[in-house]
Amino acid sequence: AQGLANDPKEEPTSGGYDVNEAYLEVALPLVANTAFADNIELSAAIRAFDYSTFGSDRTWKLGLTWKVNSELMLRSVVSTAFRAPTVDELYSGNSPSFEQITYPGAQDQAEVTVGGNDQLTPEEADTTTIGLVYEPEWFDGFSMTVDYYEIEIENAIASVNEQYIVDQCLKTSANADSALCQSANVQLDSTGRISLNNQQQNIGSEKTSGVDLNLAYVFEALDLSWRAALDTTYLDEYVVEITGDPVDYAGLVTAGKGGFADLKSNLSLKVSADSWSATYKARYIAGMDSYNCLNKDTCYAPTTPTVIYHDISGSYIVNDNLSFSAGVNNLFDKQPPYYTGNTDSNTDPYTFDVLGRRLFAGVNVKF
Prior knowledge:
Layout: E1 19-32, E2 39-51, E3 55-67, E4 72-83, H1 87-91, E5 95-100, E6 109-114, E7 123-134, E8 142-154, E9 157-158, H2 162-169, H3 179-184, E10 187-188, E11 194-197, E12 201-202, E13 205-221, E14 224-241, E15 247-248, E16 252-254, E17 258-259, E18 263-272, E19 276-285, E20 288-290, E21 303-304, E22 307-319, E23 322-329, E24 358-365
Parallel strand pairs: 6-11, 16-20
Antiparallel strand pairs: 1-2, 2-3, 3-4, 4-7, 5-6, 7-8, 8-13, 9-12, 10-11, 13-14, 14-15, 14-18, 16-17, 18-19, 19-22, 20-21, 22-23, 23-24
């Protein structure tokens, strides 16, 4: 009745810019062959750039690597970063989207205009990483890497969660003059339909930190080669500050920004011989709470459960010119969890497998 369609028109993308860059990198050995270090090395880099749209700036990086002995290496990097908006972020054509919104007296789906924004300015960031690599001589074939990371971004480029916009700009008049609410121009008509703009914008700041862990073990057994690996990421925080009221998305799943599981892991086990190999993989995603559920007691699905996917694959080499491969992704046909807050797909396609079990096969021929 309102003339809205599921395949709305999108305006064309058009625009561009020019950039010139120069950089310098150096590596300086500080210590070698001492009682407390096999070697210590300092690395440094600087990059200067000039954009036709954003002017000139520079970034830098300092790194320190301390190889204590043949088993243990410590490392740390501090740096600044600069990211100019992409052509798509600047000039992508506007198009309507329809997102689920919770607001008293309003329809549960809002008409949202999305697209680029030619008023964007570059992102700037400070990053810090501290980690170690451990390969013990007493445990042949085993290795472990652990890295802590912390990233702070100013003028972060993103589209804001639509529920957050409504909460900040429609529920209260205190933020009416904020840059977010002025840009969003949230409207509520007499039929209860909400409309708003949510183009890409410099939202304020983002801060994320966490720990990456990698364990690997390579060994020989039963006349076969084996490799086991575990990659795990723990997300400690993912804080977005837009109007002075920071939101920590760690452990939340959202309709617009996707999922921010506080724990993700990938396990793989590969066995191989001269002419064949077989691989098993498991993907783990911790459960999350729905950001859009303002009242957990009234939401049909306020959380997503822990999800584990299983994949298998194999390959066979006939000769130097011919090989075959095949496998199954999502072996047990695990369906994506439903959660309240995503109208279009009822789940988060950025995080979860929405295709179900699927088989693949391939042939590699060299001429």
